Amino acid sequence: MKLPLAGLLALALAACQPSSPPAAHDAGPRAGMSVGSPWLRESPPGAPVVGGFLTLHNGTRIDDRLLSVESAAAERIEIHTMRDDDGVARMRRLADGLPLPAGATVELKPGGFHLMFIQPHAALEAGGRVDATLVFEHAGRVPVVFDVRPPGARAPAAHH
Questions:
Q1: Residue 7: what are its φ and ψ, rounded to 5°?
Q2: Facing residues of 145 across strands?
Q3: How far is residue 160's CA from residue 158's CA, in Å, rounded to a whole number?
Q4: Which residues on adjacent β-strands are paired with residue 49?
Q5: What are the tens digits of pLDDT across the range 37-83?
Q6: What are 102-155's pLDDT values in tens digits?
Q7: How many CB atoms sit inside 10 A of residue 56's CB?
Q8: What are the beta bridge partners of residue 70?
Q9: pTM for this one?
Q10: How far is CA 147 from CA 12, 17, 37, 81, 128, in A?
């Protein structure tokens, strides 16, 4: 097969062009957003809420935001912050999500930022696992599996 000289030149020029950056919604974990050590506390039967924790690292060059978390394990999941107000711990829902600055690591842990699994559909037992999806403003939907740890558990050793 013979291509006209103009066709060969067009193919050569196209091959030399830099590829376009991925669209913001395609920038999942392979593009720099990583999730470390997701875990939940074991809940007694009928517990109205369960705390969820993990570490998020935004290895991209753009600020992002954790907008929501979805899971069939609970009626809903909210992103919360906790602060000490004159010796009283106060939780507050982050209605606009959790900011994740470019290059930053944000830890969701007991006593700080955390997830609240509200109205779990079943008791969560230590040793179990819970599937969820993190929804980011730019990185899109990232599946994650939370390990269920015993009551009073602390964060596992940090690693990414």
A1: -65, -40
A2: 131
A3: 7
A4: 118
A5: 999 999 888 899 999 999 999 999 999 999 999 999 999 999 999 88
A6: 999 999 999 899 999 999 999 999 999 999 999 999 999 999 999 999 987 665
A7: 23
A8: 133
A9: 0.75
A10: 51, 45, 8, 21, 6
SS (H, E, C) the chain: CCCCHHHHHHHHHHHHCCCCCCCHHHCCHHHCEEEEEEEEECCCCCCCEEEEEEEEEECCCCCEEEEEEECCCEEEEEEEEEEEECCEEEEEECCCCEEECCCCEEEECCCCCEEEEEEECCCCCCCCEEEEEEEECCCEEEEEEEEEECCCCCCCCCCC
Side-chain-side CA neighbours of 90 within 13 Å: the count stands at: 8
Query: Locate tokens 């015993």: which residue?
Result: 150
Q: Give the list of residues 6+ apart from residue 49 with CB closer than 8 angstroms, or none.
A: 116, 117, 118, 119, 120
- Burial zone of 90 (CB within 10 Å; 0-12 exposed, 13-18 middle, 19+ buried): exposed
